[in-house]
Design a protein that fits this description.
Strand order of the largest sheet of chain A: 5-6-7-8-10-9
Oligomer: heterodimer
Shape of chain A: globular
Largest interface: A-B, 42 and 35 residues
Radius of gyration of chain A: 30 Å
CATH topology of one domain in chain B: Rossmann fold
Mean pLDDT of chain A: 77
CATH architecture of one domain in chain B: 3-Layer(aba) Sandwich
Number of helices of chain A: 31
Structural class of chain B: alpha/beta
Number of strands of chain B: 4
Chain lengths: 710, 220
């Protein structure tokens, strides 16, 4: 049994390009179209044919606009097909209809299956739905064990008909294709579905809250549930009055639903309910989401309401006094007061807990807390009771995800953390559907309003396909991406090939045992040549695409067991995030002068490659270069065993811009043209000095490095 | 003797030649027209060919073995699905239960429009070359249309089971094709759009070296 899902985004984009060679459309436009169509091959095939046929009068963007403004299934591109590659129906709706009409409303099981379908359309389209949560939306399923079995039978019917599918092999999460959701929204006449889903979400919250599982696990489950409520908020139709009704309907679960709805659809009419939820929340979790809802509402509040909110947050009314007990609530409070200060001019003193700093080290190190008295710079912690002024507080603490954590609701499971930093991490994760490992690169992005969120999403859809489109054996393939809109930020996850191997840095530390002169040690010339040639090849590919890598250094190059080079951390920092000064500092020694002056060009990467090869052969620290940072000692002054030819290749890469290799291909050819590496074991410095037959310090071939041994 | 009478005699193969009035007639038998069994050497070559089916690298598109019946040409715009192609190859080549001489069955399942038939088509044109006995594609969308398609597999241009094949009753044609599918010669059968498990049981060969690839919306 081979379950087939929709195409991966990169493949979808490729397919659309294949259909429309005449159309000058960007990958980003096609990625947006493919996403709109849920990457469903039939829909992509029809859309591609349509665009190819009408390319003279229709642009990809215009088509995307048509898909978005109206019902995509009704668009003529998806309804008018007649001749098929597989002689199957060329109409997406009719294809769904074939399955749907098998359900007989007069049959008990089928009637329940239809009800389940109607309820499933209230979850975020295409996103995973927990199995038990979906069953719980059938009111009857909660009444008896027998009724639960009936609900399960109804679900089996839907699985049989291919109307819903398991997300993974564990079979605890389900998913419905987004176009199918659109189709079913038109078909269903079930008026009780929205209320049923709303109640199921509230009830499920209560269940999780009363579980005896560890706190961290419960919180994680509750957060996942809130994500479902947010998806529900986008699908359902709720007026502010209805949201107020839910606030008033009793349980904490109801209020959590109401708060998540408020977060997604902020409206000043709900302001009173949110204040009340902050003040009298029954749990830290509820208070946290009440604060989030308040913050989402900030731009819509008038000055009186802002004053009320500010006063409440500074007071110790009700359960406000417990806010300081956890970092996340405290941070949002500070964040709100900060915004209130800047928008109203009022000065708010932020109450601080004494234990706050230790609980929030990530925050302290990434934000600009400035204490006027001490003048301390970022990284220090304001003393308690000092007002915090200026600077955006970094509201989301960045802890790497623990192994076993599931992402994209069960599609990927974290196996381990590969590397972690302040604003993201790299994980090894398993795709649970195909049982295959990928690298997940996580990057944190914060936003503080719906508007910022919308901008972030637009930006991601614009920028990410560029990465999806890179295709070179020395670059890990980016196969997918998804965005986790949690709490008050988003985390972008790029799903990439997982590279088994070590960075050049690690290889150098572990295996760089060939001794040179003056403490120099490094790897063999044969290795360095092979890596250098492979890196030239991938740089040539990137430069042809008008991409400058900018960050070539040993820690960004991986070597696999088969001695293959992979360029990692590709372009991401550059494309998707502005480069921060700290990044530049870290790479000093690998960056040529023109790039430091802000004018990088393709040859800047060749300099970095030269510096990298120099490093792996000599372990030389470029920070000690004299007379300036850009003057490297010649390779053979540190490693006399290296061939003069290879040394020249490296030193020419490290030369001033005009004397450098003109491009990566030229440098690659130069490496290929070198005479074979001689097999004689390298002369150690002691042996060389002892027999005196060979100068321990050969004459540097590069006249620019007279002080290299100083 | 008229042309078609001669042919009828020929076709039945065991004509009793009896002339009128007690006379005799000479009947020339031109050819043995029973279904030919596969000789050992051919079989060994064919099995070796299947052994070569690669599980890692994805083979290029090559012409199908002679006798194949596949209604769809490869789609030049097919993209992606490399891991799925490899998974199918693994499922059909060796599932470990070599002792049970049962047909190996793999099913591609998923939502309508997700590309099940496209994937099967791509698989057939890339991996069909390793099934020396040929590839036979039958649409199961309409149960009533299955028998005629199965019968067609035995005709000239396809398996060409007997020179007189087209003259046999449909039931006999089907019986012969199903018999051929049960031979030890590796063949790949594709049951496209098969939503009924009973149909799989009815049409897949109970024995022999044929592999069956099913596309179905049903995940069960």
């Amino acid at each position: 049994m081979l379950p087939l899902s929709e195409l991966q985004l990169a493949d979808s984009v490729q397919l659309l390009h294949a259909y429309t060679p005449e159309l000058q459309a960007s990958d980003a436009d096609f990625a947006a179209i493919a996403t709109e169509l849920g990457n469903l091959p039939l829909a992509l095939h029809l859309a591609g044919s349509f665009l190819g046929k009408f390319h003279r009068v229709l642009t990809a963007q215009a088509y995307l606009g048509q898909l978005r403004t109206a019902d995509p299934l009704a668009h003529s591109s998806l309804t008018k097909g007649s001749i098929s590659a597989t002689a199957h129906d060329e109409n997406v709706s009719r294809t769904f209809e074939v399955s749907y009409r098998n359900l007989d409303g007069t049959d008990t099981t089928d009637a329940q299956a239809l009800a389940l379908l109607a309820r499933a359309t209230y979850f975020a389209p295409g996103e995973p739905i927990p199995h038990r949560l979906l069953l719980a939306t059938l009111e009857s399923a909660n009444t008896s064990d027998e009724a639960l079995l009936q609900a399960e039978s109804a679900l089996f019917r839907l699985l049989e008909l291919g109307l819903i599918e398991w997300v993974n092999e564990r079979e605890d999460t389900l998913r419905m294709h987004r176009l199918l959701v659109k189709y079913l929204q038109q078909k269903t006449t079930d008026t009780s579905a929205q209320a049923a889903v709303e109640q199921a979400l509230a009830t499920r919250y209560e269940q999780i809250r009363n579980q005896s599982s560890p706190d961290a696990q419960r919180t994680s489950e509750m957060n996942q549930l809130v994500a479902h409520v947010r998806g529900f908020a986008l699908q359902g139709a709720y007026t502010p009055a209805e949201i107020q009704r839910i606030f008033a309907s009793g349980t904490e679960g109801n209020r959590i639903v109401a708060l998540a709805l408020s977060f997604m659809k902020p409206d000043p009419l709900i302001f009173g309910s949110i204040l009340e939820a902050i003040r009298n929340s029954k749990s830290a979790f509820e208070q946290y989401h009440a604060l989030l809802a308040a913050r989402a509402l900030l731009p819509k509040l008038n000055d009186i309401q802002k004053g009320q909110l500010g006063a409440l947050l500074q007071s110790s009314a009700g359960n406000i006094r417990y806010i300081t007990q956890d970092t996340s609530r405290q941070i949002i409070r500070m964040n709100i007061l900060d915004k209130l200060s800047s928008s109203t001019g009022a000065q708010y003193q932020v109450p601080m807990a004494r234990n706050y700093p230790s609980g929030a080290k990530n925050v302290a190190s990434t934000s600009n807390f400035i204490s006027p008295q001490s003048g301390a710079r970022g990284g220090s912690v304001p003393p308690p009771s000092q007002p915090v002024s200026g600077g955006k507080t970094n509201a989301t603490t960045m802890e790497p995800l623990a192994p076993g954590t599931e992402l994209a609701a069960g599609r990927y499971t974290i196996e381990r953390v590969v590397a972690a930093g302040e604003r993201g991490a790299v994980y090894k994760a398993r795709d649970t559907r195909f049982n295959r490992s990928f690298a997940l690169k996580e990057t944190l992005d914060e936003f503080e309003s719906e508007n910022e969120r919308a901008q972030a999403v637009a930006w991601l859809t614009r920028e990410t396909p560029f990465l999806l489109n890179l295709n070179h054996p020395r670059i890990p393939r980016v196969v997918d991406f998804f965005v986790d809109f949690f709490v008050e930020g988003s985390k972008l996850y790029l799903v990439m090939d997982f590279i088994e191997g070590r960075t050049l840095d690690e290889v150098l530390e572990k295996e760089g045992h060939i001794m040179g002169v003056g403490g120099a040690r490094g790897l063999s010339e044969a290795c360095a040549r092979s890596w250098g040639q492979q890196l030239c090849n991938v740089l040539a590919y990137l430069h042809r695409q008008n991409i400058i890598f900018r960050e070539l250094k040993p820690s960004n190059v991986m070597v696999t067991d088969r001695e293959e080079i992979k360029l990692i951390d590709f372009g991401f920092a550059r494309t998707l995030q502005p480069q921060r000064p700290s990044d530049v500092l870290m790479s000093l020694g690998y960056i040529p002068p023109e790039q430091l002056q802000g004018m990088p060009e393709p040859r800047s990467d060749l300099y970095a490659l030269g510096a990298t090869l120099h490093r792996v052969l000599t372990h030389h620290d470029a920070a000690t270069n004299k007379p300036d940072l850009f003057t490297f000692p010649s390779v053979r002054s540190l490693r006399p065993d290296i061939s003069p030819g290879f040394e020249q290749v490296i030193m020419k890469a490290l030369a001033p811009l005009k004397q450098r290799w003109s491009d990566a291909t030229e440098m690659e050819q130069a490496i290929i043209a070198l005479p074979p590496v001689t097999e004689t074991p390298p002369a150690g410095p002691i042996a060389g000095a002892a027999d005196g037959t060979e100068p321990a310090i050969p004459r540097p071939s590069n006249p620019q490095t007279p002080n290299s041994m100083a | 003797m008229a042309e078609d009478q001669l042919f009828t005699q020929y076709a039945q193969g065991n004509a009793i030649a009896q002339a009128s009035y007690g006379g005799t007639a000479i009947v020339n038998v031109y050819q043995d027209i029973s279904t030919r069994s596969v000789d050992f050497a051919t079989l060994a070559t064919a099995q070796q060919q299947l052994e070569h089916l690669p599980l890692g690298a994805i083979p290029d598109i090559t012409p199908l073995p002679s006798g194949s019946r596949v209604p769809f040409a490869p789609n030049p715009l097919f993209v992606g699905r490399a891991s799925h192609l490899r998974a199918l190859a693994t499922m059909l080549k060796d599932s470990g239960d070599q002792d049970e001489r049962r047909a190996k069955i793999a099913a591609i399942t998923g939502l309508g429009g997700v590309g099940k038939t496209q994937l099967a088509t791509e698989f057939v044109h890339r991996y069909g070359q390793y099934f020396a006995g040929g590839v036979f594609w039958v649409s199961f969308a309409e149960a009533n249309a299955i028998p005629a398609q199965v019968a067609e597999c035995g005709r000239s241009g396809y398996l060409n089971l007997r020179p007189d094949f087209h003259t046999l009753p449909l039931e006999d044609q089907i019986r012969l094709v199903l018999g051929a599918w049960q031979s030890a010669l590796p063949r790949l059968l594709v049951f496209d759009n098969c939503e009924d498990e009973a149909l799989v049981a009815q049409w897949s060969p109970p024995t022999g070296a044929s592999c069956v690839l099913i596309t179905s919306r049903r995940a069960q």
